[in-house]
Amino acid sequence: SENIPTVAKDPRYARYLKMVQVGVPVMAIRNKMILEGLNPDLLDTPDAPVPDGQLETEESSDSESSFSD
């Protein structure tokens, strides 16, 4: 648990953080994130742990049993 994935390291969120850095309007980024089912509030907390605890690039076959549906 010492290697907790953060928002900034998650490829789903990293691209939006980069958009902020290059000057894309934050409201446009937030709207796009909502359309993609991501939490736009995480733009403000790039060092926070990823809510689902899984990086998109990680192999998650061993954790499928933890999903309820």
**What portion of residues belong to β-strands?**
under 5%
Mean of pLDDT: 81
Q: Rg, please?
A: 13 Å
N to C succession of SSEs: HH
Helix fraction by DSSP (H/I, runs of at least 4): 25-40%
Count of extended strands: 0
Major sheet size, sense and barrel closure: none
- What distance separates the N and C termini? 25 Å
Number of helices: 2
Instruction: Give the class from helix and strand content and strand pairing.
Output: mainly alpha
The global form is: globular
Poorly predicted ranges: 58-67
Summary?
The chain is an all-alpha fold.
What does this structure look like?
The protein is mainly α. The chain has a domain of 41 residues. 30% of the residues lie in helices and 0% in strands. The protein has two helices and no strands. It is globular. The protein starts with 10 loop residues before the first helix and ends in a 34-residue tail after the last helix. The C terminus is likely disordered.
